[in-house]
Amino acid sequence: MTVADPRPLTGEPVSLDLLNTRWMDEGEPRDLLADTAGLAVWLAANGLDGRFAADEATLRRTRAGREALKGLVDRPGDPDAIARADAVLEHGRIRAVLTAEGPGERAEFADPAWGPAWTAVRGHLDLLRTAPDRIRVCAHEACVLHFFDTSRNGTRRWHSMATCGNRAKASRHYARTKDQ
Predict the structure, then answer these.
(1) pLDDT tens for residues 124-167?
(2) How far apart are CA 32 and CA 10, in angstroms?
(3) Quick one: which of 60, 21, 58, 57 has its CA closest to 42?
């Protein structure tokens, strides 16, 4: 039985999707990684469920990866944040392989429980290489979600115009009209 993903934003690159396992719901903080069932949902959402177990060890290491990513996004260039991300990356490596389809790469882990965290942090390196200025936090003051801005001109402000964008517009409208 597949459990539905309860998060308001899914489908972001794996590093940001891991950060988005924390969100606000009606003013209350939620955490998909509160237990192994939530980890199973996140693994499935990112196509990692066939490769990694949703057990306690993987949950602990995935949370550590999330904290490392949070530091990188909240404090770009901070030596402590970089060290935490590097510590996660030390648990895996890329191995060149030759397959029937041609050259390829395969991730390897001494401890597979680090696989999801390593995959997310390594994915973040790809975002930093391609467009670090497009890694964003939703501009709504009550929102904690992250997104990769794929808009043409790179000016997206909210994770969703339908939710946070409308809330911001409604707040501005209310502020303008309440004193009239």
Answers:
(1) 999 999 999 999 999 888 899 999 988 888 777 777 656 675 55
(2) 12
(3) 21
Give the C-alpha separation, 102 to 100, whole Å: 6
Confidence of residue 98 (pLDDT cuts 50, 70, 90): very high
Instruction: Measure the CA–CA gap between 95 and 108, rounded to whole angstroms.
Output: 7
* C-alpha to C-alpha distance for 175 and 180, rounded to whole angstroms: 10
78 pLDDT above the threshold of 90:
yes
Nearest by Cα to 33 from 19, 16, 51? 19
Phi, psi values for residue 18, rounded to 5°: -65, -40
Tokens for 17, please give them: 């999707």
